[in-house]
Each structure stands twice: as C-alpha cells, then as structure tokens.
C-alpha cells in the first residue's frame, strides 16, 4: 500500500507521525510523497487554534474526495470527535492515546519487509520524551486534548537516541508537549537535566537540540548541562505577553521581570546562544496601553527571534469566556508590529555572528551550494567542492549576515 502521513502542528505530532511512518515501513508499506496519489491518508491533526481545526477539516475533505481511505488522529480529532464523524462518516478516527494502533489497524503489506525503521528523508529526528501538560494556561486547549503530563522512562529515551545514532543521525530534537515537565510525574526520580546528562554519557549523538521550555523551569543545574558542547546553543522560551496583568490572566507562572532576569542570565553566560520566544497578541483584556507596554518590554529583551500568534478563542478554555475579547483587525495590526520587531531581532542576531566558527548540519545540497543550520540556529549558505551529504556536520566560518541567513564558507581545519 502507498500511504501518506500528513502532519499538522507541533513537534510531538511530528515525532508520533515519524513513529507511525517507521511502523508502516516495517510492515512493508511505502510512503507517498506530496505529488503521489496514496491509497491511505493518515492525518495527524492539531487543534491549537481555530485555523488549525479548519485546516484539518479541509484536509479531510480533500482526502475523502480523492477516494482515499482516511484515518484521522491527533488533537483536533480528539476534541472534535462527534462533529468530525457526523460530517465525514466514512473516516476512521483515533484518539491521541490510540495513535500508534493505526499501524496495527492498517496491518501488514503483502510486499517484502523494509529494513528501514525511520524515514531516511529526515535529517533531524524528533524524540518525544513526554506527553500532556498540567499547566492549564487559560487560553490553551492542549491539556484537554492531551491529558496530564506523562514521561517516558530514561531507559526508553536513551535506547531510542542510541538507535538513531547507530543509524547515522547527527542531531536529534528532544521534544514534548511540555518538555520542562519531564520527570515531574516520577515522584522526583528524574528531570530534564538528569535525562540530558544520561544521554551525554550513554550515547555519542553529536547534537541534542531542545524544543520549547518555560523560564521557570530553567535552573543552575540545567544551565550547567546546557554549557556542554553537544547540547545545541539554542533555547526557545515562550513569553506570551510582556504585561503582568495579561500574564496573570493567561495563568502563566512568571512575571515579565522573572522572564527578563532569566534571559539576561542565560545571555550573560552564553553570549552567542540563540534565544527565541512566542508571543500571543490580542488576548482578552489587552488594550492599547497594555499592548504598548508589552511591545516596549519585548523590544528590549536580548531575543534572537520571535514567533507571533494572534489569540485564538478555543471553546472549553477559561479565556474563551473572558470579557474584553479583541477584534480580529486589532490582533492583525498588533501581530504585524511585533513581527516587524521580531525581524529586526533576527537580523541583528544573525549579523552579530559574522566571523564566528560554527558546526552546521547540512540540510540541502544543490549544484554545489549547501544550506545548513548551526547549533545556534542560524541558516548558513555556502559553496562546497567536497560532496557533502544531507545530515552531515560541517565546520563553517560565518562571513556575512543577512535578514534570515548567513553567507559562510567551509572552515575545516579552521
Ligand atoms: S504550558 Fe500552557 S501553553 Fe503550553 S501546553 Fe501547557 S497549557 Fe498549553
């Protein structure tokens, strides 16, 4: 069978889709690329915004109209089960906890088994170490769709990373719905710094990148591990708002001052680290004054990039019932302002790195020109006379920074 696995949303979904793809390959199926017609379409969906739900319905409709067998899973399937089955009675629907069962339901192909266990096209596999979240930020539907935080055992994570290492991968991304909660459900037996130490000792994977973390999860022990060369010099620390009353209404567990102090201490320890953030604009009650305050606060932070999201009202969350909902046109205007601020941060950070030597993971090679990403998350473009392969590591010197990439040259031997 030719099967298309389509993934929307977060890195946890990406990791779970990769496991489904690996399982299907093991059973002798092949994976359809974007231009091929598949027999079965597996849609791994997201419900984080109303837009994500709408995209999910569009993709289901398209696959149903194409006559494919359609299997839908993920958070949108979990939260909108009854509605989806009513509109699309022909689909098969699996909740998040039942996601990996899709492999068994599709079953074995009559063709020979493949040896491959992870699709070879991905050069930076995502390793999911944790699922669920206990935070219940007032705008977020995820804890309802994914449940409470549950961690995988250290042993299981180490084995998966060792397997990826033996397959030749040079970088993995550790991810979870709430990565910083790793281990909290084990009664204090382990946590993220312990897991990282274990991975550094028990595997030789050259690079470990971390997905999102909360500032109140960053402590000295974590910063100590972060200084290890094999841990990528890159952190993504969502802020969501730079105004304390809005942060409180969001049920975020830090103040703007805590956030700034954390960022400054990381930046002081590690001047070249890439620090990214998420911000939600147009949260209920965010008036012009609180937005302006938030904007000036964000502009003075030592950030390297910003992801800006207009607030999306999700039924079933406390924020959906709050007064002071903001008009879409205002959200759009505020998003544009912050995205411009984010573009300036990105450019300034990239330019500040000119002259530095970094190790970069090769992502594409075309006519002798390579595109790669450094440990501190800068896209570099360089020419190479050597035949570099995707997924390999190369040492480069960053020459000239532009708005979203750096021109570089190979600096093996420095
Ligand atoms: S930390 Fe907040 S925003 Fe992140 S998944 Fe949990 S509830 Fe949602």
Write a brief structural summary.
Helices cover 35% and strands 22% of the residues. It is built from 13 helices and 17 strands.
Structure overview:
This protein has 414 residues and is an alpha/beta fold. It has four domains: 2-106, Rossmann fold; 123-228, Transcription Regulator spoIIAA; 233-352, 2-Layer Sandwich (Transcription Regulator spoIIAA); 357-410, Beta Barrel (OB fold (Dihydrolipoamide Acetyltransferase, E2P)), CATH 2.40.50. Helix content is 35%, strand content 22%. The chain is built from 13 helices and 17 strands. It has helices at 11-26, 50-65, 75-79, 81-87, 101-106, 142-146, 154-166, 192-202, 220-226, 244-249, 256-269, 288-299, 328-352, and strands at residues 2-7, 30-31, 40-45, 69-74, 92-93, 126-131, 150-151, 171-176, 207-210, 234-236, 274-281, 305-310, 357-366, 369-374, 379-383, 393-401, 406-410. The strands form four sheets. The protein has a five-stranded parallel beta sheet, with helices on both faces. Helix 7 packs parallel to helix 8 and helix 12 packs parallel to helix 13 (328-352). The longest helix is centred in the last third of the chain and has 25 residues, at 328-352. The radius of gyration is 22 Å and the shape is globular. The termini are far apart.
Key attributes of the depicted protein:
414 residues; alpha/beta; Rossmann fold; Transcription Regulator spoIIAA; 4 domains; five-stranded parallel beta sheet; 17 strands; 35% helix; binds iron/sulfur cluster
Topology:
Elements: E1 2-7, H1 11-26, E2 30-31, E3 40-45, H2 50-65, E4 69-74, H3 75-79, H4 81-87, E5 92-93, H5 101-106, E6 126-131, H6 142-146, E7 150-151, H7 154-166, E8 171-176, H8 192-202, E9 207-210, H9 220-226, E10 234-236, H10 244-249, H11 256-269, E11 274-281, H12 288-299, E12 305-310, H13 328-352, E13 357-366, E14 369-374, E15 379-383, E16 393-401, E17 406-410
Parallel strand pairs: 1-2, 1-3, 3-4, 4-5, 6-8, 8-9, 10-11, 11-12, 15-17
Antiparallel strand pairs: 6-7, 13-14, 13-16, 14-15, 16-17
Helix pairs in contact: 7-8, 12-13
